[in-house]
What does this fold into?
Amino acid sequence: MFHPATQILVWGLLVTTVQRLPFLLLLWLTLLTLLISLHFSPVKLRQLLRRTRWLLLTLLLVYAYNVPGVALLPVLDNFSPTHEGVQEGLTQLSRLLLALASLAFLLDKLDRTQWMSGIHSLLTPLHWLGLSRERFSIRLVLTLQYAEAGMLRGGRRWQDILHDLADTPDNTPLQALQLPRHAFTWLDGLLLLAGLLFWWISA
It folds into this structure.
Protein backbone atom coordinates (compact mmCIF):
# COMPACT_ATOMS: atom_id res chain seq x y z
CA MET A 1 0.00 0.00 0.00
CA PHE A 2 2.80 2.41 0.92
CA HIS A 3 6.20 2.89 -0.70
CA PRO A 4 8.98 1.27 1.41
CA ALA A 5 10.88 4.57 1.48
CA THR A 6 7.83 6.31 2.96
CA GLN A 7 7.48 3.67 5.67
CA ILE A 8 11.16 3.85 6.62
CA LEU A 9 11.10 7.66 6.66
CA VAL A 10 7.95 7.81 8.79
CA TRP A 11 9.48 5.32 11.23
CA GLY A 12 12.49 7.61 11.53
CA LEU A 13 10.20 10.58 12.14
CA LEU A 14 8.35 8.61 14.83
CA VAL A 15 11.55 7.67 16.66
CA THR A 16 12.71 11.29 16.49
CA THR A 17 9.37 12.68 17.61
CA VAL A 18 9.03 10.57 20.76
CA GLN A 19 12.17 12.19 22.15
CA ARG A 20 10.09 15.35 22.75
CA LEU A 21 6.84 13.89 24.06
CA PRO A 22 5.73 14.48 27.67
CA PHE A 23 6.00 11.52 30.03
CA LEU A 24 2.34 10.44 30.26
CA LEU A 25 1.67 10.82 26.54
CA LEU A 26 4.83 8.84 25.82
CA LEU A 27 3.69 6.01 28.11
CA TRP A 28 0.29 5.76 26.41
CA LEU A 29 1.79 5.90 22.92
CA THR A 30 4.34 3.23 23.84
CA LEU A 31 1.61 0.96 25.19
CA LEU A 32 -0.47 1.45 22.05
CA THR A 33 2.51 0.71 19.80
CA LEU A 34 3.37 -2.43 21.78
CA LEU A 35 -0.21 -3.69 21.50
CA ILE A 36 -0.29 -3.05 17.74
CA SER A 37 3.06 -4.76 17.22
CA LEU A 38 2.05 -7.66 19.47
CA HIS A 39 -1.06 -8.19 17.36
CA PHE A 40 0.48 -7.87 13.90
CA SER A 41 4.13 -8.90 14.46
CA PRO A 42 4.27 -10.99 17.67
CA VAL A 43 7.19 -13.21 16.67
CA LYS A 44 9.47 -10.38 15.58
CA LEU A 45 8.58 -8.31 18.64
CA ARG A 46 9.36 -11.16 21.04
CA GLN A 47 12.68 -11.74 19.29
CA LEU A 48 13.72 -8.10 19.64
CA LEU A 49 12.60 -7.85 23.27
CA ARG A 50 14.29 -11.10 24.21
CA ARG A 51 17.57 -9.96 22.69
CA THR A 52 17.46 -6.55 24.37
CA ARG A 53 15.98 -7.49 27.76
CA TRP A 54 19.24 -6.96 29.68
CA LEU A 55 19.82 -3.63 27.96
CA LEU A 56 16.32 -2.51 28.93
CA LEU A 57 16.77 -3.56 32.56
CA THR A 58 20.21 -1.97 32.79
CA LEU A 59 18.91 1.27 31.31
CA LEU A 60 16.19 1.52 33.94
CA LEU A 61 18.53 0.73 36.84
CA VAL A 62 21.24 3.15 35.72
CA TYR A 63 18.80 6.06 35.65
CA ALA A 64 16.99 4.99 38.82
CA TYR A 65 20.17 4.96 40.90
CA ASN A 66 22.21 7.71 39.26
CA VAL A 67 19.76 10.59 38.86
CA PRO A 68 19.71 12.68 42.09
CA GLY A 69 16.40 13.39 43.76
CA VAL A 70 13.97 12.26 46.44
CA ALA A 71 14.41 8.69 47.67
CA LEU A 72 11.66 6.42 46.37
CA LEU A 73 12.12 4.01 49.30
CA PRO A 74 13.39 6.07 52.27
CA VAL A 75 13.80 2.93 54.38
CA LEU A 76 16.70 1.90 52.13
CA ASP A 77 18.45 5.24 52.71
CA ASN A 78 21.38 5.59 50.27
CA PHE A 79 20.49 2.31 48.54
CA SER A 80 17.11 3.60 47.42
CA PRO A 81 16.44 4.63 43.82
CA THR A 82 15.18 8.19 43.42
CA HIS A 83 11.74 9.21 42.29
CA GLU A 84 13.23 11.42 39.57
CA GLY A 85 15.58 8.63 38.50
CA VAL A 86 12.80 6.08 38.12
CA GLN A 87 10.72 8.52 36.08
CA GLU A 88 13.67 9.37 33.83
CA GLY A 89 14.46 5.67 33.49
CA LEU A 90 10.87 4.87 32.53
CA THR A 91 10.97 7.72 30.02
CA GLN A 92 14.07 6.36 28.31
CA LEU A 93 12.73 2.81 28.55
CA SER A 94 9.46 3.86 26.90
CA ARG A 95 11.30 5.56 24.06
CA LEU A 96 13.36 2.45 23.39
CA LEU A 97 10.37 0.11 23.65
CA LEU A 98 8.40 2.26 21.22
CA ALA A 99 11.30 2.24 18.76
CA LEU A 100 11.68 -1.55 19.05
CA ALA A 101 7.95 -2.24 18.74
CA SER A 102 7.56 -0.05 15.66
CA LEU A 103 10.74 -1.52 14.18
CA ALA A 104 9.42 -5.06 14.74
CA PHE A 105 6.30 -4.13 12.79
CA LEU A 106 8.38 -2.63 9.99
CA LEU A 107 10.79 -5.58 9.81
CA ASP A 108 7.86 -7.96 9.62
CA LYS A 109 6.12 -6.08 6.82
CA LEU A 110 9.10 -5.31 4.56
CA ASP A 111 11.17 -8.05 2.97
CA ARG A 112 14.78 -7.67 1.87
CA THR A 113 14.03 -6.32 -1.59
CA GLN A 114 11.56 -3.78 -0.18
CA TRP A 115 14.16 -2.58 2.33
CA MET A 116 16.66 -2.19 -0.50
CA SER A 117 14.15 -0.33 -2.63
CA GLY A 118 13.27 2.02 0.23
CA ILE A 119 16.85 2.76 1.18
CA HIS A 120 17.74 3.14 -2.50
CA SER A 121 15.07 5.84 -2.87
CA LEU A 122 16.13 7.62 0.32
CA LEU A 123 19.74 7.70 -0.91
CA THR A 124 18.89 9.65 -4.06
CA PRO A 125 21.15 12.57 -2.98
CA LEU A 126 24.15 10.21 -3.28
CA HIS A 127 23.32 9.76 -6.96
CA TRP A 128 23.41 13.53 -7.43
CA LEU A 129 26.93 13.50 -5.95
CA GLY A 130 28.08 10.85 -8.40
CA LEU A 131 28.14 8.02 -5.84
CA SER A 132 26.60 4.57 -6.27
CA ARG A 133 23.48 4.42 -4.16
CA GLU A 134 22.69 0.95 -5.57
CA ARG A 135 25.86 -0.59 -4.20
CA PHE A 136 25.57 1.19 -0.87
CA SER A 137 21.91 0.28 -0.30
CA ILE A 138 22.40 -3.40 -1.19
CA ARG A 139 25.45 -3.78 1.04
CA LEU A 140 23.69 -2.01 3.89
CA VAL A 141 20.67 -4.32 3.72
CA LEU A 142 22.86 -7.42 3.42
CA THR A 143 24.85 -6.33 6.48
CA LEU A 144 21.64 -5.77 8.45
CA GLN A 145 20.40 -9.20 7.43
CA TYR A 146 23.65 -10.91 8.47
CA ALA A 147 23.51 -9.09 11.80
CA GLU A 148 19.88 -10.01 12.39
CA ALA A 149 20.46 -13.66 11.50
CA GLY A 150 23.44 -13.81 13.83
CA MET A 151 21.54 -12.22 16.70
CA LEU A 152 18.66 -14.68 16.34
CA ARG A 153 20.89 -17.71 16.61
CA GLY A 154 20.92 -18.93 20.15
CA GLY A 155 24.08 -19.40 22.18
CA ARG A 156 26.28 -17.04 20.18
CA ARG A 157 28.49 -14.37 21.67
CA TRP A 158 28.48 -10.85 20.26
CA GLN A 159 32.19 -11.28 19.45
CA ASP A 160 31.35 -14.22 17.18
CA ILE A 161 28.68 -12.19 15.39
CA LEU A 162 31.11 -9.34 14.74
CA HIS A 163 33.69 -11.85 13.51
CA ASP A 164 31.21 -13.27 11.00
CA LEU A 165 30.35 -9.79 9.77
CA ALA A 166 34.02 -8.95 9.32
CA ASP A 167 34.52 -12.16 7.32
CA THR A 168 31.71 -11.36 4.88
CA PRO A 169 33.34 -11.64 1.46
CA ASP A 170 33.79 -8.36 -0.36
CA ASN A 171 32.99 -9.96 -3.71
CA THR A 172 29.29 -10.47 -2.95
CA PRO A 173 27.51 -10.91 -6.31
CA LEU A 174 25.62 -7.63 -6.14
CA GLN A 175 24.74 -7.87 -9.81
CA ALA A 176 22.53 -10.88 -9.04
CA LEU A 177 20.27 -8.79 -6.81
CA GLN A 178 17.57 -6.70 -8.42
CA LEU A 179 15.86 -3.68 -6.94
CA PRO A 180 12.10 -3.61 -7.49
CA ARG A 181 10.61 -0.29 -8.44
CA HIS A 182 7.72 1.01 -6.35
CA ALA A 183 5.62 3.97 -7.40
CA PHE A 184 4.82 6.75 -4.95
CA THR A 185 1.08 7.35 -4.61
CA TRP A 186 -1.17 9.87 -2.89
CA LEU A 187 -1.35 7.47 0.07
CA ASP A 188 2.39 7.95 0.58
CA GLY A 189 1.81 11.69 0.61
CA LEU A 190 -0.89 11.34 3.27
CA LEU A 191 1.26 9.08 5.45
CA LEU A 192 4.26 11.38 5.16
CA LEU A 193 2.08 14.42 5.86
CA ALA A 194 0.71 12.72 8.99
CA GLY A 195 4.24 11.92 10.16
CA LEU A 196 5.41 15.49 9.58
CA LEU A 197 2.32 16.88 11.32
CA PHE A 198 2.96 14.65 14.35
CA TRP A 199 6.61 15.78 14.39
CA TRP A 200 5.59 19.46 14.13
CA ILE A 201 2.97 19.23 16.92
CA SER A 202 5.45 17.54 19.26
CA ALA A 203 7.93 20.34 18.64
About this structure: The radius of gyration is 20 Å.
